[in-house]
Amino acid sequence: MTNQQNSGQLPASFRDPSGFLFSRGGILYRQVNRAYEREYSRLIESGLYERLVKAGLLILHVEVDKAEGTRAERSEPPGEHSRSDAAYKIIQPERVPFISYPYEWSFGQLKDAALATLSIQKRALKVGMSLKDASAYNIQFVRGKATLIDTLSFETYREGQPWVAYRQFCQHFLAPLALMALKDVRLNQLLRAYIDGVPLDLASQLLPWKTRLNFGLLTHIHLHAGAQKKYAGEEVNPRGSISKRAMIGLIENLESAVKKLNWIPRGTEWGNYYDLTNYSDAAFEHKKQLVKEWTARVKPALAWDLGANNGVFSRVASEAGPYVVSFDMDPAAVEQNYQVSKKAKEQNILPLLLDLTNPSPSIGWANRERDSFGSRGPADLVLALAVIHHLAISNNVPLPQLADFFAEMGKWLVIEFVPKPDSQVKKLLASRDDIFPNYTREGFEATFKERFDIHEAVDIRESERVLYLMKHR
Amino acid sequence: MHFAPLPYLDPGSGSFLIQLAIAALLGLGVAVRASWGKIKGWFGIKSKTEEDDDESTE
Fold first, then answer.
1. Distance, in angstroms, between B31 CA and closest chain A CA?
2. Residue A17 and residue B8: Cβ atoms within 8 Å?
């Protein structure tokens, strides 16, 4: 949230001449520039806005008094193109509880974001409008649904014109989805390196040859990449134009290409370690009960479950009211978590992919377009259950550094200490020297006491483990 | 062809051309489906309504 708390224009919205985001008094606003007046009116008057909001596809907003925007008009102009653009309207979009990025989404999340984008485009075409961009970063998960958050993404559709966002859609959605489904699910991490989506020539090279037999992938990725190479830098002045009917055909074809892509975690590689915990039922229930009780006690608005697995404890915590972001580094666990959450229509859980030993950095222009994991915090409550041994032992992070890290991440901390006699830790130490003399209950408590007040320390029934409730000093 | 105002995203020359080719092909498909629906209509067979077929996002 750091960027959003500086009053002024947000660094992620500098590209758009139609308006920009700014924050004032901790509230997020979007300025609609004069240049965008006609498009904005059309969005509202055509009923498209209302229909999209009702379907959960577009973020809700209210128009506010323009005086609210005086700060915006006085602030730095967002770029050359807007200098002559005064504010037409100031709108206040609904707050998104946690901003996430496509490289943090599971396969199913990216697929739903792609389908939401196409569904919006189809509905827009019906009223003579079209999306002028198809950036995955314009989609956020709101109440569990993939939702467009950029209200200024619409332009008037002129029959004959191509879909200007076609290339972007293929790079941001189709290429990574195809790579994840047909090559390796971990290739979504290419999105972290390529902020404007996976280059199509790269996707084309990486995809298995058989994908050329799939009409959608053959055309939108392989031939598309070939055409890009062939006509690179050339000015095209084609005679043809794209009829509305053909445009709808194109969108529906992209939709069917996306729908055909699936990734189901199975086999020994993914997703069968959920049964491999060393917990007895009694221990599991005891832990659940403590998490529930303590979450209710500290009443967080935002909780982060770090190392959430498939989200069992995120769900327990969410019953006490907070919005829970449920992080795990295993794509299969995150996918399972998302599918459970989607099926149950949960509104306050957001499963995300995150490797705690290498969390999302700040990326983009001047490293300020997309916030790092840490700068989107702190949370009110951090859950770190059955995770400390992975960080301290597998990743060799000294305990004082772990205490510092957790202190930065949140105000309250529920942390489980997993001692050396625990079978999971024994496994981690089986193939290496024990170079962790301080990794004991006493060492852990002494270290964490330097940063936290320990409010509770409870031995988990039928286990070697201890659960703590601590407050950052 | 001239598009005004200029798009703020560069659609890319190659992307534009391939889109044109694919859309031409797919437009044909949509046209065939539409007339097929009409023909079925003559025989009193109702085709599925096109309106809001976005079940995945409803």
1. 7
2. yes
Distances, alpha carbon A354 to alpha carbons A45, A285, A330, in Å: 41, 26, 8
Calpha distance A286→A292 (Å, rounded): 10
Residues of B in contact with A16 (CB under 8 A): 8
Which residue did the predictor score with more confidence, B57 or A357?
Answer: A357
Contact at 8 Å (CB) between A220 and B22? Answer: yes
**Rounded Cα gap, residues A224 and A244, in angstroms:** 21
A240 neighbourhood in chain B, CB within 8 Å: 20, 24
Amino acid letter, residue A169:
F
Q: Does B8 touch chain A (CB under 8 A)?
A: yes
Secondary structure letter of residue A85 according to DSSP: -
Q: Which of A111, A115, A156, A236 to mutate to test the interface with B (most CBs of B within 10 A)?
A: A236
State the greatest distance between any 2 C-alpha atoms of chain A, in Å, as a whole number: 77
The length of chain B, given as a count of residues? 58
Main-chain phi, psi angles of A72, to 5 degrees: -65, -40
Chain B hits for A158, Cβ within 8 Å: 3
Interface confidence (ipTM) of the complex: 0.77
Binding-face residues of B in 19-48 toward A, CB within 8 A: 19-20, 22-31, 34
**Is the CB of B20 less than 8 angstroms away from the CB of A242?**
yes
Identify the three-state secondary structure at position A469. strand
Burial of A160 by CB count in 10 Å (0-12 exposed, 13-18 middle, 19+ buried)? middle
Rounded-to-integer distance, Cα A447 and Cα A335, Å: 35
d(CA B44, CA A235): 50
Tell me the pLDDT tens digit for each residue of B5-54.
455 666 688 898 999 999 988 877 777 877 887 887 787 776 554 444 44
Give the CA angle between residues A85, A91, A97 to the nearest 5°. 130
Both tokens assigned to B4: 């005004």
Mutation target for A interface from B3, B9, B10: give the one with most A CBs within 10 A. Answer: B9
What is the distance between the alpha carbons of residues A11 and A72, in angstroms, rounded to a whole number? 14
Q: Does a cis peptide bond (omega within 30 degrees of 0) precede residue B5?
A: yes
